[in-house]
Each structure stands twice: as structure tokens, then as C-alpha cells.
Amino acid sequence: MTSVQRESFGTLPGSGETVERFRLHSSSVTVEVLSLGCIITALKTPDKAGRVADIVLGFDNLENYLSKHPYFGAVIGRVANRIAKGKFTVEGKEYQLAINNGPNSIHGGIKGFDKMLWNAEVLPNSVRFSRISPDGEEGYPGELKVWVTYTLDEGELSINYRAQTDKTTPINLTNHSYFNLAGQGSQNIYDHEVCIAAEEYLPVDDTMIPTGEIACVHDTLFDLRKPVKLGRQMEKLGGYDHNFCLDFSKDLHYCARVWHPDTGRVLEVSTTQPGLQFYTANFLDGSLKGKGGAVYPKHSAFCMETQNWPDAVNKREKESVIKEPLTQSCPSRSSRSTGRPGFLDIHNEYV
């Protein structure tokens, strides 16, 4: 059984609105989430010897989360990842978004879902966040109602995303947690072993926009179908920030596994989405002071961002990221708990 505690984490400057922190605790895992950006601020789990550590990067206080940071633990929307030149066309009308990543738009714009205060409701084993994104917010068409539910069941964390719109609009939601299975504050992830169930990946141009090619991973540094040690791969590549192409299935399916041999911690990821953006914190530079005074240098974490393909709204995959108006709600789906010691399963479900 999971207990859920609710407490104040601080107030927003200007409005004085309260930011709440929710602590979900099972027999083996503790997850802490804010009503600001649905941010996962802590994820505590034992190693093979029973020693508990926090395995996600973040901050100790609200002030740092309100400052500029690389989306630590946040829900990203309306559209995660990059949109080329910040432009897209829906139903014959071109829309221009804010340019906030080189020549492109990234992660929902200047003030995306990660910077918004969400409504929160405590449910059995869960916290459900919701908000209404008004028509025109950050340049996107249509009023969008969004629900994000975090459910903790023993060693399984499920993140369920649901959206409803009154106009045709692109939507692509994800969570941007930064993991280090040795414990947050550890200096690199080179001793982690990763496996991603993908036959193909998307090559990118020098602005990190997919070129349009869908490339086979065979005999490349992107072939992670069998477990490989990250340090060996990244020594040759310099780091990952690429979309791996998963099965186009709406059913929940396994997509990735990361193992830290020294601690025995294992992270398994499942999703209903067709893409996994695997990112190895290439842009962290040690300038941010994290939890407990930790310094976060380059390659000190990894992200497993389950989502649609980057810039899909401008590619042949456009229909997969466009959401048409809905007049009825969508039911959520459940997922299986394993509860294995030392394991953490994260299930990302989109309905």
C-alpha cells in the first residue's frame, strides 16, 4: 500500500500561490512531486545492500526551481523536444512559436508546462495533476485540458498522461527526470549499462533537428539492443541526445533498461509512445548547485524521455502528434507491478 503525504513547499513570488509537495511512499520506493510543473524532486530507492539513495537530480528549495534550469524532473508540454524554426502548419494555418533553442523551439516554449502551477488531487496510491492551457498559450492553437497522474505501486511508478482539446493542435508530453542510479551527486554515468529496444534511430542536423532519415542501428554506436557500458560508447560518441524509434503500438511495451552494477539498481522503462529520447546530460557543466550541495557536471545523469518523434509536426509522422478535438474523456490504462527488490519500473502511458 502506498501512502501519500501533502505539504507546502513554498509560495510563488507575486501571486503568493502555494506550491505543494506530495510524497508517495511504498515499502521500497519514495517519490516526491511538486504541483509546480509536476516536477519529480526526489526518487529514493534501495541498493542491493538495502542502502537508500535519491537517484534523480534536482534542488532543495523552490527558489532554484523557479530559476533557469534544464527541466529537472518536469512534465514537458505542449510539445516536448524541438520544433524546427518554431513553425508548424495545422489545417492550412501556419503557427510561429517562440525561438528558445538556437534557431528552434523546444519543450513548449518560454513558459511551458514545466513552469506552470497545476491543480492537484490525492487519489489512492496516486496524485493527479490538472490544468487548462488556454487557446494561444505559447502560440499553440486550442484550449487544452491536461491531466497527469503519478501512481506508485511498490517498485513501479506509472505516469499517465491524458489531454482533451477543442481545436486541432499538436501535443507531445513527457517527463524530463535526470537519473543517476549510483545516487544523485555521483559525478558520471560511465559505469551504467544501458539497453534500448530499438532497431532504428533518427540522425540529426547541427541544430539537433531530425534530418528525415530513419537509420538502422546495426553496426553503429546507436545499437543498444544488447546491454553496453555507457562509458565505452560515449568515449567514441561524446554523448547521446537522440530519438530511438520504438514500436508504433498503443499498448504499453518495454523499451529500455539501465543497470548500475555496483549498487545493483535497475531502471526499466515502458511506454505507449513510439519514441524514446535518450539524453546523457551533455549540456550540464557543473555550474548548478543541486540537492545537498551536489555539483552536476557533464554526463552526471541520463534522461529517458518517452514521447513522439522530435519535430513530428513537420515530418511525415505529423498525424501521430496532432490531436483533434474531443468531446468525451479517454479512459486510462493500468500496468503491472513487479515489486522486485532493487528494481524500479517506470511506466509512461498516454491516452
From TrEMBL:
The active site is at H176, E305. Keywords: Carbohydrate metabolism, Cytoplasm, Isomerase, Phosphoprotein. Its EC number is 5.1.3.3. Pathway: Carbohydrate metabolism; galactose metabolism; Carbohydrate metabolism; hexose metabolism. One of its GO terms (biological process) is glucose metabolic process. PROSITE patterns: ALDOSE_1_EPIMERASE. Residues 320-341 are annotated as: Disordered. GO terms for molecular function: aldose 1-epimerase activity; carbohydrate binding. It is found in: Cytoplasm. Mutarotase that catalyzes the interconversion of beta-D-galactose and alpha-D-galactose during galactose metabolism. Beta-D-galactose is metabolized in the liver into glucose 1-phosphate, the primary metabolic fuel, by the action of four enzymes that constitute the Leloir pathway: GALM, GALK1 (galactokinase), GALT (galactose-1-phosphate uridylyltransferase) and GALE (UDP-galactose-4'-epimerase). Involved in the maintenance of the equilibrium between the beta- and alpha-anomers of galactose, therefore ensuring a sufficient supply of the alpha-anomer for GALK1. PANTHER family: ALDOSE-1-EPIMERASE, GALACTOSE MUTAROTASE. This is Aldose 1-epimerase. The gene is GALM.
